[in-house]
Write a structure and sequence with these properties.
single chain
Length: about 280
């Protein structure tokens, strides 16, 4: 009887919902959009560099996009990095010509705010750089509205916001799920390391120092396929993540975790839980 009781009790045991350090979290089944985990999933928070998912999405949704089009690195992009306390950057060199594809790798792997600025300058419209940047951020907010992300607003192209850059775990997860429909985006965010060869102002070739992906899950969590880290004084530690196991893809977000180690641990716990549901 005891043996039988033990056997029948096992399936009835509820799967214990994990406790995470992050203030907000959300995971869904990417194929069915079924919610698998929530913690303050609709509370608006600062997003840090997870904002760059939208930067990439806006670029990749441009009509007739030429990924091999070249962009000349302006002094304004490097000045911006310095002005923002040496913000995360791709170490782009003024005067070099870099392709849009390379800028997307520089945006998503080392989380280059210089690459984000270059893309906003290239794909915004207007006669001045300030106008183009404003136009690009407008496109980011239009995409958010089009995706039904009612708790999301951007006031920067890279997450260095001015108090009005926010989203929620649920909204960011939906954004990432939409972005992952692009083969180019999927390919970029699962890349651990990328070396760009740029064209110097004299026409030579420069081999850049390799860009390493800031996502700690790649190579440490079985099936991890992306997506993007974020951090900052207001945002704390954020991570938008995705993994595929046995044909099932789960995708989710942690916002305002307590450390870079905690955000990875939070994500792993949430995915383990989601894969068992």
């Amino acid at each position: 009887m005891l043996a039988t009781g033990a056997l029948t009790a096992a399936p009835a045991q509820a799967l214990t919902k994990p406790t995470i350090a992050a203030k907000g979290g959300y995971v869904m089944n990417n194929g069915t959009a079924r919610t698998l985990y929530t913690k303050a999933a609709d509370t608006r928070r600062s997003t840090g560099s997870t904002t760059k998912i939208m930067t990439a999405k806006v670029v990749l949704s441009q009509p007739n996009l030429n990924l091999d089009a070249k962009v000349t690195v302006q002094k304004a992009y490097s000045d911006y990095i310095v002005q923002n306390n040496w913000a995360s950057n791709a170490k782009l060199i003024v005067g070099d010509k870099v392709t849009v594809r390379q800028l997307l790798y520089g945006l998503m792997l080392p989380s280059g705010c210089d690459a984000a600025y270059a893309l906003a300058d290239k794909f915004g419209s207007g006669s001045t750089r300030a106008a183009r940047v404003k136009s690009f951020i407008g496109k980011m907010n239009k995409q958010a509205r089009d995706l039904g992300l009612t708790n999301t607003h951007f006031d920067s192209f890279d997450g260095i916001g001015r108090g009005a850059n926010y989203s929620t775990p649920r909204d960011l997860t939906k954004l990432a799920s939409s972005a992952m429909k692009s083969p180019t985006f999927r390919s970029i965010v699962k890349t651990k390391k990328y070396t760009a060869k740029t064209t110097t102002r004299t026409g030579g070739t420069r081999t850049m120092a390799p860009w390493t992906n800031t996502n700690p899950l790649l190579g440490t969590y079985t099936g991890a396929i992306g997506v993007k880290t974020g951090s900052g004084p207001e945002a704390k530690y954020c991570l938008v993540f995705a993994a595929t196991r046995n044909g099932k893809t789960v995708i989710g977000t942690v916002l305002a975790s307590t450390s870079s180690t905690s955000r990875a641990s939070d994500a792993k716990k949430m995915m383990d839980y989601a894969f068992r549901r």
